[in-house]
Design a protein that fits this description.
heterodimer; A: alpha+beta; CRO Repressor; 2 domains; four-stranded antiparallel sheet; 61% helix; B: alpha+beta; Immunoglobulin-like; five-stranded antiparallel sheet; 2 helices; 42% strand; disordered N terminus
Chain lengths: 146, 173
């Protein structure tokens, strides 16, 4: 029971912290972000396992994490408002080549992030070539060329 | 995907953009970030254990007993309970410390320095007897404990035929 509570509470806390710190926290990670993720994984691992390194305990934890995740997916599918609350919604950040700076600032992205996505995904090199840039739910930036 | 009812800024792109929700979301994110900052601040201050505010101290009315203990602690973590007493007056005197079982249910005593000469079970208490080697300003008795429960736990700790104090601990999961 304790292992299940540990897994569920760590899952819930991570979900909350990544939701609160924005959709950009996991997408297009820098080298330092990657290192930070490794540290988070190591820290949560100790909280999950405590002093119990048995195979049974790890099986319980893995199973609990999958069950909680599947349950959350079901809730998102059933209630769209829950999906929006947990995952946020896509947001247009460039329209007809014009950057919407206020939205970008609130999402923690800048014009360089948009141009990087435009170069990488569409081979575009100028902002005017972009019809729409959309910050997706997963934190990635989709580019629709003109 | 269904077009947004609020996508006034974008009529041509079929997008589930929802500005009303997005504005609310930004407000909640801001509040959430402040809450996380407060959480970190509270942890730094010691409200989650191991910090200035987590240090508890209780004195007996006659001043012969002082106990330092973790008022806020985290489960499965090591802590120290330091007992200062001036009860022994001459070399060879014995100091008998007792701890209520209610407290021991939340704390596992891993070691005691100095080691007690004798440990006995009393009614709802555990007694530790020490021989006093110095008459004045004796060294404190240090209990190395490990928290073994969650929630609020309280119990008394005191000296046989002497004063006692109540310790109240809040143990986080």
């Amino acid at each position: 029971m304790e292992a299940i509570l540990r897994a569920a509470s760590v899952y819930g806390f991570l979900l909350l912290i990544f939701r609160v710190f924005g959709k950009r926290s996991l997408a297009q990670i820098t080298t330092f972000d990657f290192v930070l993720l490794l540290i988070v994984a190591e820290t949560t691992q100790q909280a999950l396992l405590s002093d119990d390194f048995s195979v049974t305990n790890s099986m319980i934890l893995v199973a609990t994490l999958f069950v909680v995740d599947a349950g959350l997916s079901q809730l998102k599918a059933r209630w769209p408002w829950f999906d929006r609350a947990a995952e946020n919604v896509p947001l247009i950040v460039v329209k007809d080549g014009k950057p919407l700076f206020d939205r970008m600032r609130k999402c923690g992205i800048d014009i360089e992030d948009v141009l990087t996505a435009a170069r990488e995904r569409q081979g575009l090199d100028r902002l005017e070539q972009i019809k729409y840039a959309v910050l997706e739910k997963n934190g990635g930036i989709s580019i629709v060329p003109r | 995907m269904t077009p947004s009812r609020n996508s006034s800024s974008c009529e041509r792109l079929e997008s589930p953009e929802n500005l009303t929700f997005q504005e609310k979301s930004w407000r909640w994110e801001r509040a959430g970030r402040w809450a996380v900052c407060l959480f970190v601040g509270a942890a730094a201050a010691g409200l989650m254990g191991s910090g200035p505010l987590s240090r508890g101290e209780e004195h007996s009315a006659d001043g012969t007993l002082k106990v330092e203990y973790p008022a806020f602690a985290r489960t499965d973590s090591p802590y120290r309970i330091v007992v200062h007493t001036t009860a022994a007056r001459k070399v060879g005197d014995q100091v008998e410390l007792w701890i209520e079982s209610a407290l021991l249910e939340a704390l596992e005593v891993e070691s005691i320095a100095p080691e007690p000469a004798e440990t006995t079970l009393g009614t709802g208490r555990l007694h530790y007897r020490f021989r006093a080697a110095a008459a004045d300003d004796p060294a404190p008795i240090v209990l190395h404990v490990k928290t073994d429960a969650v929630g609020r736990h309280a119990g008394r700790i005191g000296l046989q035929d002497g004063p006692s104090v109540n310790l109240a601990l809040w143990i986080y999961p």
